[in-house]
From TrEMBL:
InterPro entries the UniProt entry points to: GntR_C (IPR011711), TF_FadR/GntR_C (IPR008920), Tscrpt_reg_HTH_GntR (IPR000524), WH-like_DNA-bd_sf (IPR036388), WH_DNA-bd_sf (IPR036390)
Entries under Gene3D superfamilies matching the protein: GntR ligand-binding domain-like, Winged helix-like DNA-binding domain superfamily/Winged helix DNA-binding domain
Keywords, in A-Z order: DNA-binding, Transcription, Transcription regulation
Name the record gives this protein: GntR family transcriptional regulator
Statement: the UniProt record of this protein carries the keyword Chloroplast: no
Cross-referenced SMART domains: HTH_GNTR
Keyword Manganese: no
Stored CDD domains: WHTH_GntR
Originating species: Sellimonas caecigallum
């Protein structure tokens, strides 16, 4: 039993990684036969992995019960970015209003350092970027908000990859975040937020919509 669970977990991680990195792009049809051959596994662990991914919303089933990598629609992108701007905009303002801009500048800087270190791997960079955004909303100390972000993490990562592939420049984004941190240490909310909004809401959203 332990071996079967382990194989199912391995299949789950490999398939999920391929979905999140867009190796299996939205709309791609997946079959057990294809996956068992590709992963060199039997059908049972692959079938279990697909059920797990279906429950997470990364795989959908059509009228004919075919397994499809979940699409990302323009509506999905608009809704996710609207949610992020509403929550992170309020969180960012709260950081300054509570006099914690300098403290959070160092906390955010730690995440930005990791983003810079992952600049050559857009998937790892996107993972680091999501942690940076989670750091911003942590000011709320609200478990429900954290769960909302975690529940939408898979979509956010795939949208972020589209943003990078379609115009969001990693190096420029990293440099702008460093400027944002410097403005935070000067307690300059307007200029700091302009960078967050411009790079991670406006450009990120418009680039993702070019998918």
């Amino acid at each position: 039993m332990a071996e079967k669970i382990s194989l199912a977990d391995q299949a789950y991680e490999k398939i999920k990684h391929n979905i999140l990195t867009l190796s299996y792009p939205p709309g791609m049809q997946l079959t057990e036969a294809m996956l068992t051959e590709e992963l060199n596994m039997s059908r049972n662990p692959v079938r279990t992995a697909l059920k797990m991914l279906h429950s997470e919303g990364l795989i959908t089933r059509d009228y004919y019960r075919s397994m499809i990598v979940a699409e990302i629609t323009d509506k999905d992108i608009n809704e996710i970015y609207q949610l992020r701007e509403l929550l992170e905009g309020s969180a960012f303002r709260m950081i300054f209003e509570t006099g914690r801009a300098e403290e959070f500048s160092y906390r955010i800087e730690e995440k930005v350092v990791r983003m810079c270190a992952a600049s050559d791997d857009i998937f790892q960079w996107e993972l680091a970027d999501t942690k940076m955004h989670m750091e911003i909303v942590s000011i709320f100390e609200n478990d429900r908000i954290n769960r909302i972000y975690e529940n939408n993490l898979n979509e956010v990562i795939r949208m972020g990859l589209y943003s990078v592939k379609n115009g969001l420049h990693i190096e420029k984004a990293n440099e702008n975040l460093k400027k944002m941190i410097r403005y935070m240490r000067k307690n300059n909310y307007e200029k700091a937020y302009d960078i967050l909004k411009g790079d991670h809401f406006m450009i990120g959203k418009s680039s993702a919509l070019k998918k």
